[in-house]
Structures are given as structure tokens and as C-alpha cells.
Predict the 3D structure of the following.
Amino acid sequence: MRTEARFPGVAEGAGHYESFFVKATRPGGGQGIWLRHTVHKRPGAAPTGAIWLTLFDAGAPGPRAAKATVPASELSVPDGAYIRVGQATLAPGRATGSLALPELEASWDIAFEDAGEPFLHLPYRRLYSAPLPRTKILSPHPCARFEGTLTLGDEAIGLEGWPGMVGHNWGAEHAERWVWIQGPALHGQAESCFDLAAGRIKLGPVRTPWVANGVLRLDGREHRLGGLDRALATRIRERPTACEFELGGEGVRVRGRVAGEPRNFVAWIYADPRGPEHHTLNCSIADLELELTREGAGAERIELSGCAAYEIGMRETDHGIPLQPYEDG
């Protein structure tokens, strides 16, 4: 078990959100899935669970997405598993489940493996049990390889050899603004990846500068990226469907850009346990460009087409991406 659900230990009067998510893309890009198992608990209320499923396809007019919410009675942590929400279970090495909604019927039986170690975005383990930051994130399986089948209606999609990751985040509230960028199988290496989470929080009327934490795994080496001590040298220029970034790390400097076509984004409502709401945009078949300067090596460039993830969370509602018709919590 590389992580564990936190919601069973949350006090009745506290607010909490939690997400275990799977992102995988077809080798060569152009098609991908994003599957979330979530918990939402308002202060003083029982938690609810939800399953969120999105299929991204560059050959389609846009993503196919659906969400099902279940009561606390259908939310649990089975032995040997990370979480169970309704008919969906996520465990180390396997994700199974089904949805039966008027807008979408789906089922999945997916296996995955990751020979590498989990990645903790926060630099110290003690921060994961501390009151601050209010948002915690880690990647228990950052360089996963998937097999299995996702069925949507009469269509069966095989995931043989799809690269991706499994992530986990939770907290008392979301960051005021955030971006998440992920790229799998850099240079075609199964155990390589780029995984970056950056956020700004609000202190009264002021937003803090961007603080980014991430990892670059490449050529058998791991480079931790960002951190509070590098915040002043971190540059994030985010927009609804693209982001340019620059940051330093352990033995590396990274510049990059991630972008997707607007039609390939899905937009959801994410609610803080105490309110209010964010609009969250995600494209899991985005393009990613990285320019790396590593100690002891010359500059190099990596390009991924149609298989990176770009997510942005914001207060604005004028981003132009059609919003999915589901409340959160």
C-alpha cells in the first residue's frame, strides 16, 4: 500500500475532500482516460462519494464524461484497496467498476504496474499530517503501465501498454488557484515521467506567488523540482488551455509548455468543503514540450504529442469550456 484513504479519520465537524485518480493515454497519444474516485464532506455532514469518468479522443468532437454520486453507505476502504465508491474499486495494481447513467453506461477492468517508487510532492513527510498546507498531494504510482479494457456502451477500448499514473490528493480546502501537468514515458522510457503540481493560496485579499513541487524521472535518475525555497525563481504563465512554466530543481533546470485544443478539454465544478466553488479544466491528451538543462549534460528537448495532462483550477467562469452538469458534494 503506497498510500491510504484519509476520510475515515476525519472528525464529524471538519470539512474534507479527497481524490484518487487514474490517468492513462494510448501509446502515441490522441486518446486517454481520466478516472476519479472522490470523497466530499461538508463540516458536520456525512461524506458523499463520486465516480468521475472522462474519455478524451482527439478524433471526436469532444470528451465523453459522466459523474455518479453515492451516499456514505456506498463509500468504504476494503482490505487491500485504496477506496471503494459505489461499484468502483481502486486497489494497488487494479481498478474495476461500472457506471449506469442515462447519459453514459461504462465499465472497466484495468490492471497496472509501476516498478518505481511513489513520489511525495511535499518535501517533508511531516507536512502530510500538519495543518498546513491545506491541500496534500502525492503520486503513489507516478510511472504506471496499464492493461485491460474500458467499455462505453457497445465500444470496448483496450488499454494494452498505455502509460500513465495514479494520483492521490486531499485536504480541508483546494488551493485558490492551481495547475497540474503530467507527461508519461519520456523518450519512450517506461519508468520515466514528468509530474508537476503548482498552487497559489489566498491570504486575505492577497494571492501568494506560485509554489510548485514536482519530479522529473529520466534516464534512471530522479530530480525533485521546485519547492518553497525556489518559489521566487518559479514562473507559471497559465491560461485556460495552455501554460508556460520555468523552474529549477535538484541538478536540473526545466522550461516548458503544455497546451491542448479547447474542444479536448472537460470542465467540472470542484467545491471546497466550506465553499465556494472552483471551475476545473482538464485535458489528458495535451501536448507537452520540455527544455532541460541537467548538470553534466547538454541541453535537451522532449516533446510529447497528445498524451500529457494539463489541469487548471480557477475561480473564473468565463473560460469558454462547456461545464459538465454536475454539482460537487
The mean pLDDT is 96.
